[in-house]
Design goal:
This protein has about 200 residues and is an alpha+beta fold. It is about 55% helix and about 20% strand. It contains four helices and four strands; from the N terminus they run αβααβββα.
Length: about 200
């Protein structure tokens, strides 16, 4: 009889513990979300949480790939500005009075070329970090967060919330287009950025 009771207790523990652990984590997250709302959305004077629902997890690999894509877009923009400047130089070159204008475009080409080199170095660094064993581990979580704001009339406001593994708030926005696609702290990236920024400082 004792063995049967022990087995029943063991099975119930396996079922209940993960749920209670999850509830505890979400309780911590809700408190952090409410604190963040009070501190960063001053126009919302009074509110209560209606819904806090897990939406997705973000892996380190996703964060790295999104950062590489962002740097690639900067490179493309720099290349376009260089091409536009060269066309402008050709036009201004026909006018002997445009020496100062020419100098500005030459300076712009030089600066954008350094930007390209800088971003390429950062991409090379990220490609090395991308080979780490733990890149598929989650480094941030996305939640749908809804509150009821109390004013003259009740207003329901939906946020997209990003939090770290410690459930501290990384970002909270209303517009999906504003969500940070690379919210995780990539190992060594800040140090590398400071290094190349100093190297290509102009």
């Amino acid at each position: 009889m004792k063995k049967i009771l022990f087995l029943i207790f063991a099975v119930l523990s396996l079922i209940l513990l993960p749920g209670s652990c999850k509830n505890k984590k979400e309780s911590v997250l809700q408190k952090n979300a409410e604190k963040y709302t009070r501190e960063n959305f001053k126009e919302i004077s009074s509110f209560k949480t209606i819904r806090l629902e897990f939406a997705d997890s973000i892996t380190m690999l996703q964060a790295i790939n999104n950062q590489i894509a962002l740097l690639d877009s900067f490179i493309s923009q720099s290349k376009k500005e260089i091409a536009d400047s060269r066309y402008a130089i050709e036009d201004l070159g026909k006018d002997s009075r445009s020496e100062s204008g020419l100098q500005l475009y030459f300076e712009k080409i030089k600066n954008r070329s350094m930007d390209i080199s800088k971003n390429n170095e950062l991409i090379d660094f990220l490609k090395i970090v991308r080979k780490a064993d733990n890149v598929n581990d989650a480094c941030a979580y996305k939640y749908d967060y809804e509150i009821e704001a109390k004013a003259a009339t009740l207003e329901y406001i939906n946020f997209i919330l990003l939090c770290g593994k410690d459930y501290n708030i990384i970002q909270m926005v209303k517009n999906p287009d504003e969500v940070d696609k690379s919210p995780c702290e990539i190992p060594g990236y800040n140090e590398k950025y400071a290094e190349v920024d100093k190297k290509y400082n102009y």
